Amino acid sequence: MKIQVLALLIMSLIATACxxxxxxxxxxTAEQVVAVSYPQFNADSAYNFVATQVNFGPRVPxxxxxxxxxxxxxxxxxxxxxxxxxxxxATLTAFNGDRLPAINIFAQxxxxxxxxxxxxxxxxxxxxxxxxxxxxxxxxxxxxxNDGGSGVGVLLEIARNLAVRMPAVGVDLLFTDAEDYGDTGxxxxxxxxxxxxxxxxxxxxxxTRPMYGILLDIVGGLDARFYREGFSDYLAPNIVxxxxxxxxxxxxxxxxxxxxxxxxxxxxxHINAAGIPCIDIIECANPATGSFPSTWHTLNDDMxxxxxxxxKAVGQTVLNTIYNEx
Length: 326
Hints:
By secondary structure, the protein is α/β, with parallel strands linked by helices. The protein is built from nine helices and ten strands.
């Protein structure tokens, strides 16, 4: 993902924002979120899912860690009784000419439901620790505990809950690949290659698309704070309102800060462009600059950077959001 200057959105995206934001309007305050009986998100379970991924090693397309992790994610989704699990395979070309054997993994729960919600996270990891202060370390792949592992860990714990009790709506889980093989300082489209491929080959038509999507990226950091991400606020403001109100009602108002930060080119950008309003829950270390946490794209993005409390806040908020849908 890549940080953007938010002001650039005004000219280029306001028309899309108006179209996406008008669908499924939801301007609820925290007091208006309906109280229902929600499943309990198990932070220890999610933490273990993150640790398992890290133990595979870097999940860079074409590596053994990538192959083994893909098989494991599929096995977990089958164990958690997904109605369907599909692997979308493609050889994608990176900005530097590298050919990437990418695998997008897609699962559906409550498949017959016409009202659906899409939850997604990227499962690949950055092939270079290019944010390390020591240039000698820049070509070393990162562990990807937070950037990659945390979102997947939360989605798998949500899947475990879906196997026990289904919400009223259908839930689609998308694990995207080749998100983090982009060119820092280069073209925006060098990032999120798996998602760009997926939106061109979606298993939806105009009548079966989800109501909205929620992207989870860098959601397990120590004492993490999640601000309203810029693209999300312009392209799907009603969904941001819905999720942040749900977080506040669940007691996570200090974690989900109701203030806008900078914009990030991430998977949700392409999901919005495909006609599905989608927001990004992503940690912001400094709202003034929109910067990522200090472990981002470094070798310190390991299990020491993972906070069960952050996983719990995000996971419970997303669970409450989907189980509150009628």
